Amino acid sequence: MQIKVVPLGCNFMWCLQVFSNRYQLVLSSSISNPFLHHKFKPFGYDRNLSYHNRTKRGSIRAEAEKQGWDVGRFLKTLYFFNGPPSPAKLFEFLIEKLSGTSPSEPVKAMDNSGVILVAGATGGVGRRVVDLLRKNGRSVRVLVRNEEKAKRMLGPDVDLIVGDITKASTLLPEYFKGVRTVINAVSVIVGPKEGDTPDRAKYSQGIKFFEPEIKGDSPEMVEFIGMKNLINAVKETVGLRSGKLIFGFDENISRELPWGALDDVVMGGVSESTFLIDSNGGENGTPTGIFRGIVSTTNNGGFTSVRTKNFSIPEDLSAYDGLELRVKGNGLRYKLIIRTSRDWDTVGYTVGFDTVKDQWQSVRLPFSSLRPIFRAKTVADAPPFNPSEIISLQLMFSKFEYDGKLNPTFLEGPFQLPISAIRAYLKEPVTPRFVHVGSAGVTRPDRPGLDLSKQPPAVRLNKELDFILTYKLKGEDLIRESGIPYTIIRPCALTEEPAGADLIVEQGDNITGKISRDEVARMCIAAVESPYACDKTFEVKSVIPFSEPYTVDPENPPPEKDYNVYFQILKDGITGKESLEQSAPPVPV
Hints:
Layout: E1 2-5, E2 16-19, E3 24-27, H1 34-37, H2 71-82, H3 87-99, E4 115-119, H4 124-135, E5 140-144, H5 147-154, E6 160-162, E7 179-184, E8 189-192, H6 201-205, E9 212-215, H7 219-238, E10 244-250, E11 253-255, E12 259-261, E13 272-278, E14 288-295, E15 303-308, E16 322-328, E17 333-339, E18 348-354, E19 360-366, E20 371-374, E21 377-378, E22 392-398, E23 413-425, E24 434-437, H8 457-460, H9 468-481, E25 486-491, E26 493-495, E27 503-506, E28 514-516, H10 517-528, E29 536-542, H11 564-567
Parallel strand pairs: 4-5, 4-7, 5-6, 7-24, 24-25, 25-29, 26-28
Antiparallel strand pairs: 1-2, 2-3, 8-9, 10-11, 10-23, 12-15, 13-14, 14-23, 15-22, 16-19, 16-23, 17-18, 17-22, 18-20, 20-21, 27-29
Protein backbone atom coordinates (compact mmCIF):
# COMPACT_ATOMS: atom_id res chain seq x y z
CA MET A 1 0.00 0.00 0.00
CA GLN A 2 1.28 3.48 -0.89
CA ILE A 3 0.08 6.60 0.96
CA LYS A 4 0.97 10.06 -0.36
CA VAL A 5 0.04 13.52 0.96
CA VAL A 6 0.38 16.32 -1.61
CA PRO A 7 0.16 20.04 -0.60
CA LEU A 8 -1.51 22.13 -3.33
CA GLY A 9 -0.92 25.90 -3.45
CA CYS A 10 -0.78 28.55 -0.75
CA ASN A 11 -4.25 27.74 0.65
CA PHE A 12 -4.58 24.69 2.95
CA MET A 13 -5.23 21.95 0.40
CA TRP A 14 -4.62 18.31 0.77
CA CYS A 15 -5.02 15.08 -1.08
CA LEU A 16 -4.79 11.60 0.36
CA GLN A 17 -4.28 8.82 -2.15
CA VAL A 18 -4.64 5.23 -1.04
CA PHE A 19 -3.91 2.45 -3.50
CA SER A 20 -4.75 -1.12 -2.56
CA ASN A 21 -5.93 -4.27 -4.24
CA ARG A 22 -9.53 -3.48 -3.23
CA TYR A 23 -10.28 0.17 -4.02
CA GLN A 24 -8.84 3.64 -4.68
CA LEU A 25 -9.74 6.66 -2.58
CA VAL A 26 -9.05 10.28 -3.59
CA LEU A 27 -9.88 13.26 -1.35
CA SER A 28 -9.20 16.80 -2.57
CA SER A 29 -10.23 20.33 -1.71
CA SER A 30 -9.33 23.84 -2.75
CA ILE A 31 -10.89 25.70 0.19
CA SER A 32 -9.12 26.63 3.39
CA ASN A 33 -11.16 24.31 5.61
CA PRO A 34 -13.48 21.93 3.75
CA PHE A 35 -15.14 20.69 6.95
CA LEU A 36 -16.26 24.14 8.12
CA HIS A 37 -17.68 25.05 4.71
CA HIS A 38 -19.50 21.79 4.07
CA LYS A 39 -23.17 22.06 5.06
CA PHE A 40 -23.95 18.76 6.64
CA LYS A 41 -27.45 17.69 7.45
CA PRO A 42 -27.76 16.51 11.08
CA PHE A 43 -26.97 12.80 11.08
CA GLY A 44 -29.01 11.48 13.99
CA TYR A 45 -32.22 9.57 14.42
CA ASP A 46 -35.16 10.50 12.26
CA ARG A 47 -38.84 10.66 13.16
CA ASN A 48 -39.79 10.19 9.50
CA LEU A 49 -40.71 6.55 8.95
CA SER A 50 -40.11 6.54 5.19
CA TYR A 51 -36.88 4.81 4.25
CA HIS A 52 -35.66 4.99 0.67
CA ASN A 53 -33.01 3.04 -1.21
CA ARG A 54 -30.75 5.80 -2.47
CA THR A 55 -29.83 5.79 -6.15
CA LYS A 56 -27.18 8.53 -6.19
CA ARG A 57 -23.44 7.89 -5.85
CA GLY A 58 -22.66 5.58 -2.95
CA SER A 59 -26.06 3.90 -2.96
CA ILE A 60 -26.36 0.23 -2.06
CA ARG A 61 -26.76 -1.98 -5.10
CA ALA A 62 -27.02 -5.77 -5.08
CA GLU A 63 -23.80 -6.25 -7.02
CA ALA A 64 -20.98 -8.64 -6.46
CA GLU A 65 -18.23 -6.34 -7.81
CA LYS A 66 -16.51 -3.50 -6.01
CA GLN A 67 -18.34 -0.19 -5.55
CA GLY A 68 -17.17 3.36 -4.95
CA TRP A 69 -16.76 4.50 -1.37
CA ASP A 70 -19.32 7.12 -0.28
CA VAL A 71 -16.88 9.66 1.15
CA GLY A 72 -19.65 12.13 1.96
CA ARG A 73 -21.45 9.65 4.19
CA PHE A 74 -18.16 8.74 5.85
CA LEU A 75 -17.50 12.41 6.68
CA LYS A 76 -21.04 12.83 7.96
CA THR A 77 -20.43 9.94 10.32
CA LEU A 78 -17.28 11.60 11.67
CA TYR A 79 -19.07 14.94 11.92
CA PHE A 80 -22.00 13.52 13.90
CA PHE A 81 -19.91 11.77 16.52
CA ASN A 82 -16.96 14.14 16.81
CA GLY A 83 -17.98 17.52 15.39
CA PRO A 84 -16.06 19.05 12.48
CA PRO A 85 -12.71 17.19 12.47
CA SER A 86 -9.47 18.90 11.51
CA PRO A 87 -7.72 17.54 8.41
CA ALA A 88 -4.82 16.39 10.59
CA LYS A 89 -7.15 14.44 12.87
CA LEU A 90 -8.90 12.86 9.89
CA PHE A 91 -5.55 11.86 8.40
CA GLU A 92 -4.47 10.26 11.70
CA PHE A 93 -7.76 8.38 11.89
CA LEU A 94 -7.46 7.02 8.34
CA ILE A 95 -3.86 5.93 8.90
CA GLU A 96 -4.89 4.14 12.11
CA LYS A 97 -7.83 2.47 10.38
CA LEU A 98 -5.72 1.21 7.52
CA SER A 99 -2.77 0.12 9.66
CA GLY A 100 -4.86 -1.71 12.26
CA THR A 101 -3.23 -0.20 15.35
CA SER A 102 -4.85 -0.76 18.74
CA PRO A 103 -6.31 1.92 21.03
CA SER A 104 -3.79 3.94 23.00
CA GLU A 105 -5.73 4.71 26.20
CA PRO A 106 -6.60 1.92 28.62
CA VAL A 107 -10.14 1.62 29.96
CA LYS A 108 -10.54 2.42 33.64
CA ALA A 109 -10.80 -0.50 36.01
CA MET A 110 -14.10 -1.35 37.63
CA ASP A 111 -14.87 -0.26 41.20
CA ASN A 112 -15.98 -3.44 42.96
CA SER A 113 -16.28 -1.90 46.42
CA GLY A 114 -20.02 -2.38 47.01
CA VAL A 115 -19.92 -0.03 49.99
CA ILE A 116 -22.51 -0.28 52.79
CA LEU A 117 -23.36 3.17 54.12
CA VAL A 118 -24.34 3.36 57.79
CA ALA A 119 -26.24 6.52 58.68
CA GLY A 120 -26.51 7.33 62.37
CA ALA A 121 -23.27 5.41 62.94
CA THR A 122 -22.53 6.85 66.37
CA GLY A 123 -25.90 5.87 67.84
CA GLY A 124 -26.60 2.78 69.92
CA VAL A 125 -27.61 0.55 66.99
CA GLY A 126 -25.49 2.26 64.32
CA ARG A 127 -22.10 1.80 65.97
CA ARG A 128 -22.86 -1.88 66.54
CA VAL A 129 -23.74 -2.27 62.86
CA VAL A 130 -20.42 -0.68 61.89
CA ASP A 131 -18.45 -2.95 64.24
CA LEU A 132 -20.12 -6.10 62.95
CA LEU A 133 -19.70 -5.18 59.29
CA ARG A 134 -16.02 -4.44 59.74
CA LYS A 135 -15.48 -7.70 61.60
CA ASN A 136 -17.11 -9.45 58.65
CA GLY A 137 -14.71 -7.77 56.24
CA ARG A 138 -17.35 -5.61 54.58
CA SER A 139 -16.60 -2.23 53.04
CA VAL A 140 -18.25 0.36 55.29
CA ARG A 141 -18.73 4.11 55.03
CA VAL A 142 -20.38 6.11 57.81
CA LEU A 143 -22.47 9.27 57.60
CA VAL A 144 -22.05 11.38 60.73
CA ARG A 145 -22.50 14.96 61.86
CA ASN A 146 -19.55 15.06 64.26
CA GLU A 147 -16.26 13.87 62.76
CA GLU A 148 -14.29 14.03 66.02
CA LYS A 149 -16.89 11.98 67.91
CA ALA A 150 -17.07 9.41 65.12
CA LYS A 151 -13.30 8.87 65.00
CA ARG A 152 -13.12 8.63 68.77
CA MET A 153 -15.92 6.06 68.83
CA LEU A 154 -15.25 4.09 65.63
CA GLY A 155 -11.51 4.54 65.17
CA PRO A 156 -9.32 6.99 63.26
CA ASP A 157 -9.27 4.87 60.11
CA VAL A 158 -13.03 4.79 59.59
CA ASP A 159 -14.25 5.80 56.11
CA LEU A 160 -16.57 8.66 56.96
CA ILE A 161 -18.47 11.49 55.37
CA VAL A 162 -19.64 14.46 57.37
CA GLY A 163 -23.20 15.49 56.61
CA ASP A 164 -26.54 16.24 58.19
CA ILE A 165 -29.62 14.59 56.74
CA THR A 166 -31.72 17.58 57.83
CA LYS A 167 -29.66 19.74 55.43
CA ALA A 168 -29.77 18.46 51.86
CA SER A 169 -26.91 20.76 50.82
CA THR A 170 -24.49 18.75 52.99
CA LEU A 171 -25.25 15.45 51.21
CA LEU A 172 -23.03 15.85 48.17
CA PRO A 173 -23.33 13.28 45.35
CA GLU A 174 -19.63 12.35 45.46
CA TYR A 175 -20.04 11.23 49.10
CA PHE A 176 -22.17 8.30 47.98
CA LYS A 177 -20.06 7.06 45.06
CA GLY A 178 -19.84 3.27 45.29
CA VAL A 179 -22.58 2.92 47.92
CA ARG A 180 -24.77 -0.10 47.15
CA THR A 181 -26.70 -0.48 50.41
CA VAL A 182 -27.81 1.84 53.20
CA ILE A 183 -28.46 0.85 56.81
CA ASN A 184 -30.21 3.82 58.37
CA ALA A 185 -30.12 4.03 62.16
CA VAL A 186 -30.71 7.78 62.37
CA SER A 187 -33.32 8.76 64.92
CA VAL A 188 -34.50 11.90 66.62
CA ILE A 189 -32.85 12.27 70.01
CA VAL A 190 -35.07 11.70 73.03
CA GLY A 191 -33.52 12.27 76.46
CA PRO A 192 -34.43 12.77 80.11
CA LYS A 193 -35.78 16.18 81.03
CA GLU A 194 -33.59 16.14 84.13
CA GLY A 195 -30.46 15.54 82.06
CA ASP A 196 -28.26 12.50 81.52
CA THR A 197 -24.77 11.21 82.18
CA PRO A 198 -21.98 11.86 79.63
CA ASP A 199 -22.38 8.32 78.29
CA ARG A 200 -26.20 8.65 78.18
CA ALA A 201 -26.77 5.90 80.73
CA LYS A 202 -30.36 6.93 81.42
CA TYR A 203 -31.20 7.02 77.73
CA SER A 204 -29.67 3.57 77.29
CA GLN A 205 -32.05 2.15 79.89
CA GLY A 206 -35.01 3.05 77.69
CA ILE A 207 -37.72 5.70 77.65
CA LYS A 208 -39.73 3.69 80.18
CA PHE A 209 -37.37 4.79 82.95
CA PHE A 210 -37.35 8.58 82.59
CA GLU A 211 -39.57 11.55 81.70
CA PRO A 212 -38.63 12.25 78.08
CA GLU A 213 -38.25 15.31 75.87
CA ILE A 214 -36.93 15.97 72.37
CA LYS A 215 -33.29 17.04 72.27
CA GLY A 216 -32.02 18.86 69.20
CA ASP A 217 -33.81 18.77 65.84
CA SER A 218 -37.53 18.07 65.76
CA PRO A 219 -39.09 14.76 64.68
CA GLU A 220 -40.36 16.45 61.53
CA MET A 221 -36.84 17.55 60.57
CA VAL A 222 -35.16 14.24 61.35
CA GLU A 223 -37.74 11.55 60.64
CA PHE A 224 -39.51 13.11 57.67
CA ILE A 225 -37.48 15.85 55.98
CA GLY A 226 -34.22 14.09 56.87
CA MET A 227 -35.52 10.82 55.43
CA LYS A 228 -36.54 12.56 52.22
CA ASN A 229 -33.07 14.09 51.88
CA LEU A 230 -31.30 10.80 52.55
CA ILE A 231 -33.42 8.89 50.03
CA ASN A 232 -32.78 11.53 47.37
CA ALA A 233 -29.04 11.39 48.08
CA VAL A 234 -28.68 7.61 47.68
CA LYS A 235 -31.41 6.76 45.18
CA GLU A 236 -29.13 6.81 42.15
CA THR A 237 -26.38 4.74 43.74
CA VAL A 238 -28.41 1.96 45.38
CA GLY A 239 -30.84 1.31 42.52
CA LEU A 240 -34.57 0.93 42.07
CA ARG A 241 -36.56 -2.28 41.94
CA SER A 242 -38.12 -1.20 38.63
CA GLY A 243 -34.70 -0.39 37.18
CA LYS A 244 -33.52 2.77 35.46
CA LEU A 245 -34.75 3.86 32.04
CA ILE A 246 -31.80 4.61 29.74
CA PHE A 247 -33.73 4.98 26.50
CA GLY A 248 -37.35 4.60 25.48
CA PHE A 249 -40.93 5.07 26.41
CA ASP A 250 -42.51 3.68 29.56
CA GLU A 251 -45.94 4.73 30.76
CA ASN A 252 -45.65 8.42 31.70
CA ILE A 253 -41.90 8.80 31.27
CA SER A 254 -39.63 8.81 28.24
CA ARG A 255 -35.97 9.32 27.53
CA GLU A 256 -34.48 9.78 24.09
CA LEU A 257 -30.83 9.54 23.10
CA PRO A 258 -28.91 11.07 20.14
CA TRP A 259 -28.38 8.00 17.94
CA GLY A 260 -26.36 8.18 14.74
CA ALA A 261 -25.49 5.65 12.05
CA LEU A 262 -22.07 4.00 12.24
CA ASP A 263 -21.97 1.55 9.34
CA ASP A 264 -19.30 -0.31 7.40
CA VAL A 265 -18.76 2.86 5.35
CA VAL A 266 -15.98 3.58 7.87
CA MET A 267 -14.06 0.63 6.36
CA GLY A 268 -15.10 1.04 2.74
CA GLY A 269 -18.44 -0.81 2.77
CA VAL A 270 -21.79 0.35 1.47
CA SER A 271 -24.28 -0.84 4.09
CA GLU A 272 -26.37 1.88 5.71
CA SER A 273 -28.81 2.27 8.57
CA THR A 274 -30.71 4.82 10.60
CA PHE A 275 -32.53 5.15 13.90
CA LEU A 276 -35.94 6.73 13.99
CA ILE A 277 -38.86 7.21 16.33
CA ASP A 278 -42.31 5.87 15.43
CA SER A 279 -44.88 7.64 17.60
CA ASN A 280 -47.34 4.74 17.53
CA GLY A 281 -45.34 1.74 16.32
CA GLY A 282 -44.77 0.15 19.71
CA GLU A 283 -46.86 -2.25 21.75
CA ASN A 284 -50.47 -1.10 22.06
CA GLY A 285 -49.83 1.90 19.84
CA THR A 286 -47.15 3.42 22.06
CA PRO A 287 -44.00 5.12 20.73
CA THR A 288 -40.92 3.08 19.90
CA GLY A 289 -37.49 3.51 18.43
CA ILE A 290 -36.63 1.59 15.25
CA PHE A 291 -33.14 0.50 14.17
CA ARG A 292 -33.42 -0.24 10.46
CA GLY A 293 -31.29 -0.38 7.38
CA ILE A 294 -29.87 -2.40 4.50
CA VAL A 295 -26.78 -4.52 5.00
CA SER A 296 -24.43 -5.61 2.22
CA THR A 297 -21.16 -7.54 2.09
CA THR A 298 -19.95 -5.55 -0.91
CA ASN A 299 -16.38 -4.21 -0.56
CA ASN A 300 -15.76 -6.67 2.28
CA GLY A 301 -18.38 -4.93 4.38
CA GLY A 302 -21.19 -6.56 6.27
CA PHE A 303 -22.39 -4.55 9.24
CA THR A 304 -24.66 -1.70 10.15
CA SER A 305 -25.04 -0.06 13.54
CA VAL A 306 -26.37 2.93 15.39
CA ARG A 307 -24.42 4.47 18.23
CA THR A 308 -25.19 7.24 20.66
CA LYS A 309 -23.10 10.31 20.94
CA ASN A 310 -20.87 10.25 24.02
CA PHE A 311 -22.86 11.12 27.12
CA SER A 312 -21.83 14.48 28.56
CA ILE A 313 -21.89 12.90 32.02
CA PRO A 314 -21.03 9.18 32.30
CA GLU A 315 -24.00 6.96 33.10
CA ASP A 316 -23.47 5.24 36.45
CA LEU A 317 -25.25 1.88 36.40
CA SER A 318 -23.09 0.21 39.04
CA ALA A 319 -26.15 -0.36 41.23
CA TYR A 320 -27.62 -2.65 38.56
CA ASP A 321 -26.80 -6.06 37.13
CA GLY A 322 -27.35 -5.54 33.40
CA LEU A 323 -29.44 -3.96 30.66
CA GLU A 324 -32.87 -5.14 29.55
CA LEU A 325 -34.00 -4.43 25.99
CA ARG A 326 -37.65 -4.48 24.98
CA VAL A 327 -37.61 -5.37 21.27
CA LYS A 328 -39.82 -6.75 18.54
CA GLY A 329 -37.66 -9.43 17.00
CA ASN A 330 -37.19 -10.60 13.45
CA GLY A 331 -35.37 -13.86 14.13
CA LEU A 332 -31.91 -12.31 13.69
CA ARG A 333 -28.98 -11.97 16.06
CA TYR A 334 -27.79 -8.50 17.09
CA LYS A 335 -25.09 -7.03 19.31
CA LEU A 336 -25.15 -4.51 22.11
CA ILE A 337 -21.87 -2.66 22.58
CA ILE A 338 -21.13 -0.48 25.61
CA ARG A 339 -18.15 1.86 25.79
CA THR A 340 -16.51 3.35 28.83
CA SER A 341 -14.06 5.61 26.96
CA ARG A 342 -14.64 8.85 25.10
CA ASP A 343 -12.21 7.80 22.37
CA TRP A 344 -13.62 7.44 18.86
CA ASP A 345 -12.16 3.98 18.31
CA THR A 346 -11.70 1.92 21.45
CA VAL A 347 -12.64 -1.30 23.23
CA GLY A 348 -16.36 -2.02 23.22
CA TYR A 349 -17.84 -4.33 25.84
CA THR A 350 -20.03 -6.53 23.70
CA VAL A 351 -22.74 -9.17 23.96
CA GLY A 352 -24.89 -10.78 21.27
CA PHE A 353 -28.59 -11.47 21.60
CA ASP A 354 -31.10 -13.45 19.57
CA THR A 355 -34.60 -12.32 18.74
CA VAL A 356 -37.85 -14.15 18.07
CA LYS A 357 -39.57 -13.31 14.80
CA ASP A 358 -42.58 -10.99 15.04
CA GLN A 359 -42.74 -11.08 18.84
CA TRP A 360 -42.18 -8.40 21.45
CA GLN A 361 -39.73 -9.77 23.97
CA SER A 362 -37.61 -8.61 26.90
CA VAL A 363 -33.94 -9.50 26.50
CA ARG A 364 -31.78 -9.32 29.64
CA LEU A 365 -28.06 -8.87 29.05
CA PRO A 366 -26.05 -9.20 32.28
CA PHE A 367 -22.99 -7.01 32.62
CA SER A 368 -21.13 -10.18 33.57
CA SER A 369 -21.68 -11.51 30.01
CA LEU A 370 -19.97 -8.57 28.30
CA ARG A 371 -16.80 -9.38 26.37
CA PRO A 372 -14.10 -6.74 25.65
CA ILE A 373 -13.89 -6.53 21.83
CA PHE A 374 -11.77 -4.36 19.57
CA ARG A 375 -12.25 -4.71 15.81
CA ALA A 376 -13.97 -8.08 16.16
CA LYS A 377 -11.23 -9.52 18.38
CA THR A 378 -11.28 -10.24 22.11
CA VAL A 379 -8.87 -8.06 24.08
CA ALA A 380 -7.46 -10.51 26.60
CA ASP A 381 -5.79 -7.93 28.83
CA ALA A 382 -8.65 -5.40 28.89
CA PRO A 383 -9.72 -4.20 32.34
CA PRO A 384 -13.05 -5.37 33.74
CA PHE A 385 -16.15 -3.57 32.53
CA ASN A 386 -16.88 -0.53 34.69
CA PRO A 387 -20.65 0.09 34.86
CA SER A 388 -20.13 3.40 36.67
CA GLU A 389 -18.47 5.00 33.61
CA ILE A 390 -20.76 4.27 30.65
CA ILE A 391 -20.07 6.74 27.85
CA SER A 392 -22.06 5.41 24.88
CA LEU A 393 -24.29 2.58 23.62
CA GLN A 394 -24.31 0.90 20.22
CA LEU A 395 -26.68 -1.52 18.49
CA MET A 396 -25.25 -3.57 15.63
CA PHE A 397 -26.38 -6.07 13.02
CA SER A 398 -23.30 -7.73 11.57
CA LYS A 399 -22.04 -10.64 9.56
CA PHE A 400 -19.24 -10.96 12.10
CA GLU A 401 -19.29 -12.13 15.69
CA TYR A 402 -15.75 -12.00 17.12
CA ASP A 403 -12.48 -13.95 16.93
CA GLY A 404 -13.31 -15.22 13.44
CA LYS A 405 -16.81 -16.42 14.22
CA LEU A 406 -19.74 -15.52 11.98
CA ASN A 407 -23.29 -14.58 12.84
CA PRO A 408 -25.36 -17.73 12.10
CA THR A 409 -28.51 -15.68 11.41
CA PHE A 410 -26.93 -13.10 9.11
CA LEU A 411 -28.87 -12.17 5.97
CA GLU A 412 -28.04 -9.48 3.42
CA GLY A 413 -30.75 -6.97 2.60
CA PRO A 414 -33.21 -4.84 4.55
CA PHE A 415 -33.92 -5.38 8.26
CA GLN A 416 -35.52 -3.53 11.14
CA LEU A 417 -35.57 -3.91 14.91
CA PRO A 418 -38.18 -1.94 16.89
CA ILE A 419 -36.82 -1.22 20.38
CA SER A 420 -39.18 0.49 22.80
CA ALA A 421 -36.94 0.62 25.88
CA ILE A 422 -33.47 0.04 27.25
CA ARG A 423 -33.32 -0.06 31.02
CA ALA A 424 -30.92 -1.17 33.72
CA TYR A 425 -32.27 -3.96 35.91
CA LEU A 426 -31.70 -5.68 39.25
CA LYS A 427 -31.38 -9.43 38.95
CA GLU A 428 -33.65 -11.74 40.86
CA PRO A 429 -33.87 -12.45 43.70
CA VAL A 430 -33.68 -8.79 44.71
CA THR A 431 -32.27 -8.06 48.16
CA PRO A 432 -32.87 -4.92 50.24
CA ARG A 433 -30.84 -1.85 49.34
CA PHE A 434 -32.19 0.33 52.18
CA VAL A 435 -32.58 -1.14 55.67
CA HIS A 436 -34.22 1.22 58.13
CA VAL A 437 -34.40 0.94 61.91
CA GLY A 438 -37.73 2.48 62.90
CA SER A 439 -39.90 1.95 65.94
CA ALA A 440 -42.80 -0.22 66.99
CA GLY A 441 -45.92 1.80 67.73
CA VAL A 442 -45.81 4.22 64.80
CA THR A 443 -49.40 3.50 63.73
CA ARG A 444 -50.90 3.43 67.23
CA PRO A 445 -51.34 7.06 68.38
CA ASP A 446 -54.28 7.58 66.01
CA ARG A 447 -55.60 4.05 66.03
CA PRO A 448 -59.32 4.01 66.94
CA GLY A 449 -60.35 2.03 70.03
CA LEU A 450 -56.81 1.60 71.41
CA ASP A 451 -56.33 1.75 75.19
CA LEU A 452 -53.37 4.11 75.43
CA SER A 453 -52.84 3.34 79.13
CA LYS A 454 -51.56 -0.08 78.11
CA GLN A 455 -49.21 1.31 75.46
CA PRO A 456 -45.53 2.29 75.75
CA PRO A 457 -44.66 5.89 76.74
CA ALA A 458 -43.84 7.00 73.20
CA VAL A 459 -47.38 6.10 72.08
CA ARG A 460 -49.00 7.88 75.02
CA LEU A 461 -46.73 10.92 74.68
CA ASN A 462 -46.73 11.19 70.89
CA LYS A 463 -48.20 14.73 70.92
CA GLU A 464 -45.97 15.91 73.78
CA LEU A 465 -42.94 14.61 71.89
CA ASP A 466 -43.80 16.71 68.82
CA PHE A 467 -45.62 13.84 67.09
CA ILE A 468 -42.51 11.66 67.05
CA LEU A 469 -44.26 8.47 65.98
CA THR A 470 -46.43 10.26 63.44
CA TYR A 471 -43.36 11.56 61.63
CA LYS A 472 -41.58 8.23 61.94
CA LEU A 473 -44.51 6.70 60.06
CA LYS A 474 -44.37 9.42 57.42
CA GLY A 475 -40.68 8.68 56.99
CA GLU A 476 -41.44 4.98 56.55
CA ASP A 477 -43.95 5.86 53.85
CA LEU A 478 -41.25 7.75 51.96
CA ILE A 479 -39.12 4.59 51.93
CA ARG A 480 -41.98 2.40 50.74
CA GLU A 481 -42.87 4.87 47.99
CA SER A 482 -39.27 5.46 46.83
CA GLY A 483 -38.96 2.38 44.63
CA ILE A 484 -35.77 1.34 46.47
CA PRO A 485 -35.86 -2.30 47.66
CA TYR A 486 -36.15 -1.94 51.43
CA THR A 487 -36.60 -3.54 54.83
CA ILE A 488 -38.18 -1.63 57.72
CA ILE A 489 -37.38 -3.09 61.13
CA ARG A 490 -39.52 -1.80 64.01
CA PRO A 491 -37.87 -2.80 67.28
CA CYS A 492 -39.73 -2.54 70.56
CA ALA A 493 -37.96 -0.79 73.46
CA LEU A 494 -34.19 -0.98 72.97
CA THR A 495 -31.88 -2.24 75.72
CA GLU A 496 -28.16 -2.70 76.38
CA GLU A 497 -28.58 -6.41 77.01
CA PRO A 498 -26.62 -8.88 74.85
CA ALA A 499 -28.03 -10.57 71.79
CA GLY A 500 -29.10 -14.18 71.94
CA ALA A 501 -32.60 -14.37 73.37
CA ASP A 502 -35.32 -16.00 71.30
CA LEU A 503 -37.29 -13.53 69.22
CA ILE A 504 -40.90 -12.79 68.39
CA VAL A 505 -41.39 -11.24 64.93
CA GLU A 506 -44.83 -9.96 63.93
CA GLN A 507 -46.49 -7.60 61.48
CA GLY A 508 -49.35 -5.17 61.98
CA ASP A 509 -47.77 -3.05 64.75
CA ASN A 510 -49.34 -4.66 67.79
CA ILE A 511 -46.60 -6.05 70.05
CA THR A 512 -44.82 -4.48 73.01
CA GLY A 513 -41.69 -5.58 74.83
CA LYS A 514 -37.94 -5.11 74.68
CA ILE A 515 -35.04 -6.12 72.47
CA SER A 516 -31.27 -5.81 72.54
CA ARG A 517 -29.55 -3.21 70.37
CA ASP A 518 -26.98 -5.92 69.57
CA GLU A 519 -29.77 -8.12 68.23
CA VAL A 520 -31.22 -5.35 66.08
CA ALA A 521 -27.79 -4.63 64.57
CA ARG A 522 -27.34 -8.29 63.64
CA MET A 523 -30.81 -8.41 62.13
CA CYS A 524 -30.04 -5.35 59.98
CA ILE A 525 -26.96 -7.01 58.51
CA ALA A 526 -28.84 -10.26 57.92
CA ALA A 527 -31.63 -8.38 56.12
CA VAL A 528 -29.15 -6.90 53.61
CA GLU A 529 -28.47 -10.40 52.26
CA SER A 530 -32.01 -11.80 52.40
CA PRO A 531 -34.55 -11.68 49.57
CA TYR A 532 -37.15 -12.80 52.15
CA ALA A 533 -36.74 -9.48 53.96
CA CYS A 534 -37.12 -7.39 50.80
CA ASP A 535 -39.98 -4.88 50.82
CA LYS A 536 -41.17 -6.04 54.25
CA THR A 537 -42.13 -4.09 57.37
CA PHE A 538 -42.16 -5.89 60.72
CA GLU A 539 -41.86 -5.54 64.50
CA VAL A 540 -39.50 -7.51 66.69
CA LYS A 541 -38.97 -8.17 70.40
CA SER A 542 -37.33 -10.80 72.57
CA VAL A 543 -39.30 -13.39 74.53
CA ILE A 544 -37.79 -12.05 77.77
CA PRO A 545 -40.23 -9.76 79.67
CA PHE A 546 -39.19 -6.35 80.92
CA SER A 547 -39.15 -7.56 84.49
CA GLU A 548 -36.42 -10.11 83.79
CA PRO A 549 -32.86 -9.18 82.89
CA TYR A 550 -31.16 -11.18 80.16
CA THR A 551 -27.53 -12.26 80.43
CA VAL A 552 -25.26 -14.58 78.49
CA ASP A 553 -22.72 -17.05 79.89
CA PRO A 554 -19.47 -16.34 78.00
CA GLU A 555 -18.50 -20.00 78.41
CA ASN A 556 -21.75 -21.18 76.88
CA PRO A 557 -23.02 -18.53 74.43
CA PRO A 558 -26.28 -19.04 72.55
CA PRO A 559 -26.03 -20.34 68.96
CA GLU A 560 -25.94 -17.92 66.04
CA LYS A 561 -29.40 -17.24 64.65
CA ASP A 562 -30.54 -17.88 61.11
CA TYR A 563 -32.64 -14.74 60.68
CA ASN A 564 -34.13 -16.08 57.47
CA VAL A 565 -36.26 -18.31 59.70
CA TYR A 566 -37.99 -15.10 60.80
CA PHE A 567 -37.89 -13.33 57.44
CA GLN A 568 -39.52 -16.23 55.60
CA ILE A 569 -42.82 -15.81 57.45
CA LEU A 570 -43.19 -12.14 56.51
CA LYS A 571 -45.87 -11.01 54.08
CA ASP A 572 -46.03 -8.13 51.64
CA GLY A 573 -48.09 -5.03 52.28
CA ILE A 574 -48.67 -5.33 56.04
CA THR A 575 -47.69 -2.16 57.89
CA GLY A 576 -50.35 -1.65 60.60
CA LYS A 577 -51.79 1.26 58.65
CA GLU A 578 -54.65 -0.98 57.62
CA SER A 579 -56.44 -0.15 60.90
CA LEU A 580 -56.17 3.57 60.18
CA GLU A 581 -57.83 3.55 56.79
CA GLN A 582 -61.36 4.01 58.11
CA SER A 583 -60.42 6.76 60.54
CA ALA A 584 -57.52 8.91 59.45
CA PRO A 585 -57.11 12.14 61.47
CA PRO A 586 -55.24 15.05 59.92
CA VAL A 587 -51.46 14.89 60.08
CA PRO A 588 -49.77 17.94 61.61
CA VAL A 589 -47.97 20.14 59.11
